[in-house]
Amino acid sequence: MIKAEHLYYAYVIGKKGKQTEVPVLKDVNFEIEKGEVVAVAGKSGSGKSTLLNLLSGYIPPDSGIITINDRNVTDLTEKEWAAFRLEHFGFVFQNYELIPSLTAFENVELPLILKGIDMDQRKTRVAALLHETGLENHSTHYPNELSGGQQQRVSIARALINEPEIIFADEPTGSLDSETEQEILKLIDSLNKEKNITFVIITHDEEVASRADRKLTLFDGVLKQGRGTYSEAQ
Ligand SMILES: Nc1ncnc2c1ncn2[C@@H]1O[C@H](COP(=O)(O)OP(=O)(O)OP(=O)(O)O)[C@@H](O)[C@H]1O
């Protein structure tokens, strides 16, 4: 479902004429099957977010190939990537990234408006997802009127609204207490089991990584499978 072959990416830093390349991903290779939950671990600065940005088309690799659903997506244009993301991906972030001036309902509805779905369908689908994520009584609340766990549920409902095959989650429980973390992990678990959604989760958290089917650890620009203790992966 997601395949990365020999991914290389370097940031170019410094002023013009004095620029240097800082390689972050040197030779990253992996394959993720449909329906897997994969944790991506690695020390701070090891390139986890960079990898996520490559996989989701926000930055092109300097070299290497990314294949998603048997399609080589490495050279998609920005416009093609935008359509591809809307069709196949959902995103969940540590800080929820909700729009503060929109209610929970409106935040979840927004991707459907972008896709041109008519109002009746939008209302039905958003209501169903808010129910599924346990938010039916909070649909008119604004983000600042919701707890962290509730905001993360809204962001998960928003990620689900276009029925994506893959959800990329960047530290999805990083801002939550341990009890709320458990609730969110249970929700991810049930979405994976019931809808067969593939999850790629960046995490520093051992609990999150241990509940994944597999853990990939970024170390020195390459990805090691099942290697390294949790402390190495911090
Ligand atoms: N825009 C940028 N320009 C230059 N260097 C960058 C840029 N973004 C990230 N880096 C560098 O690339 C490396 C990898 O960064 P990245 O954010 O991918 O790591 P990470 O594993 O996600 O870290 P963290 O766990 O702290 O979020 C770091 O050394 C960082 O300083």
Can you describe what's shown?
It is a single chain. The protein is globular, with a radius of gyration of 18 Å. It has 7 helices and 10 strands. The chain is 35% helix and 27% strand. The protein has a 6-stranded mixed beta sheet with strand order 6-7-8-3-9-10. Strands 2-1-4-5 form a 4-stranded antiparallel beta sheet, covered by helices on one side. The longest helix has 18 residues, at 178-195. The protein is of the alpha/beta class and 234 residues long. It has helices spanning 48-55, 78-88, 104-114, 119-132, 148-160, 178-195, 206-211, and strands at residues 2-13, 20-32, 37-42, 63-68, 71-72, 89-93, 166-170, 198-202, 214-219, 222-225. The protein has a single domain (34-60, 75-233), classed as Rossmann fold (3-Layer(aba) Sandwich), CATH 3.40.50. The two termini are 27 Å apart. Bound molecules: adenosine-5'-triphosphate. Adenosine-5'-triphosphate binds next to β1, β2 and α1.
